[in-house]
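name: query_chain
kind: protein
chains: 1
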Amino acid sequence: MTSDHDSWPTLDELLREEAELERTGLSETDAYELGMRAVAAASERALPVAVGVWRAGRQLFHCGLPGSTQDNDAWLRRKGRVVVRFEHSSLYVARLCQDKNVTLTERYGLPASRYAAAGGALPLRVRGTGVVGWMGVSGLPQLDDHRFVVDILRSAAQ
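structure:
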């Protein structure tokens, strides 16, 4: 029997993806442009998502699109805390937990009320500096949330 997780990228694929998405910087203007790019793409497809971009613990961009709720905002922050804690995408941590058959609480003592190992938040890693922030969305199935953010970050790099 296969699970939905079988269609997820492997840990190695997710690490390669993170390396590919490394940036040269993350200014307030960059955060705004990333956020607006995500809002435009989500609006075009009528996706009910919340979008956020954070740097060094400071929220630089947030938008709740039609159909999103406060619950999406809470999930977004919980996924972002996972990125800050592990410096990897929230999907990477979800896959890591799934592969080890543990929860964040069981393995790391992190409360589910504050941390969510679910796809949708990615680290914003700056070349020569490391992880300086994160970008995420919440409102779609977790793999779709993850892929949406990857697509936005890829399109912004071009």
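note: Residues 151 and 157 are 10 Å apart (CA to CA).
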